[in-house]
From TrEMBL:
Residues 19-103 form the Polymerase nucleotidyl transferase domain. Pfam families: NTP_transf_2. This is Nucleotidyltransferase domain-containing protein. The lineage of its organism: Bacteria, Bacillati, Bacillota, Clostridia, Thermoanaerobacterales. Keywords: Transferase. InterPro entries: NT_sf, Polymerase_NTP_transf_dom. One of its GO terms (molecular function) is nucleotidyltransferase activity.
Length: 108
């Protein structure tokens, strides 16, 4: 689906609802953060949403996690997921997302 007019606030609200659903259904989810162009207000029509999904743990390699979490998304908008564990929070992409992103879900 291509988006020709981006209503940022409505889209962020829909992503927040999706993040809350993922958090409720998956106790392994610690935090979900929107980052990148949409979070920074630089998105253009055709942009996707970048979501950092912080997991408490996972035995799966990153590429398996990527496929698994991509398949769990139930939103009618292009989303790229980045499922990392708490042990991987030191990675530059993860640090940047945590520092500059919008928290959509966080488990207390």
């Amino acid at each position: 689906m291509k988006v020709f007019w981006l209503e940022r606030e409505k889209l962020i609200e829909a992503l927040k609802e999706e993040a809350e659903r993922l958090g409720r259904e998956n106790p392994n989810v610690k935090k979900i953060v929107l980052f990148g162009s949409l979070a920074e207000g630089r998105a253009i029509p055709g942009s996707d949403a970048d979501l950092l999904i912080v997991l408490t743990e996972s035995d799966s390699p990153f590429l398996e996690r990527l496929a698994e979490w991509s398949a769990k998304m139930k939103i009618d908008f292009p989303v790229e997921v980045f499922p990392y564990t708490q042990e991987e929070l030191h990675l530059p992409l993860v640090r940047t997302a945590l520092e500059s992103g919008i928290v959509l879900f966080e488990r207390p």
